[in-house]
Design goal:
There is one protein chain. The chain is an alpha+beta fold and about 160 residues long. The chain has a single domain, classed as Hotdog Thioesterase (Thiol Ester Dehydrase, Chain A). Helix content is about 25%, strand content about 30%. Strands 1, 2, 3, 4, 5, 6 and 7 form a seven-stranded antiparallel sheet that branches. A hairpin with a 3-residue loop joins strand 4 (about 75-85) and strand 5 (about 90-100). The chain starts with 6 loop residues before the first strand and ends in a 23-residue tail after the last helix.
Length: about 160
Amino acid sequence: MPHTAPFMAPPADIEAAWIDYNGHLNMAYYNVLFDRGADRAFETFGLTENYVKEQGFSFFVAEVHVCYLRELHLGDKVQASFQLLGFDEKRLHVYHELLHSDGWVAATCETLYLHIDASGPKVAAIPSPMAEMIKAMYDSHNTLAWPDRAGRQIKITGNKKPAP
């Protein structure tokens, strides 16, 4: 199955209930938009509600790093990207961008997903058919440049670790 590079979720509208007292999109809803976009990407390799219900497996977020670059407001339309940076038998490393309909990047997100056996819950190997589809996506996405914002860490230059 051919994959777009990166995967692009369908456009989404900013909902009125998501606007905070500062008049812009509340930070939590950037994550909602990234998560909804990721759900659409996951569907391309078989992670659906039926997979979760029938097989008892899913992907959970283990770590996430969001950079908020520009404000979003009511009436804005955005699209979430999904670029698979790496994977192994139990994990996915993904980079996302939240793109405004005018073409600018509102936020970026880097996520580590774990494949989970819900009966534990515990980390579990991704089954072969799904792993093959993930590899096909990775092969397509691996043609893209490494994103500048991927692998960032939070730090203030010059700060020293506090004494124990």
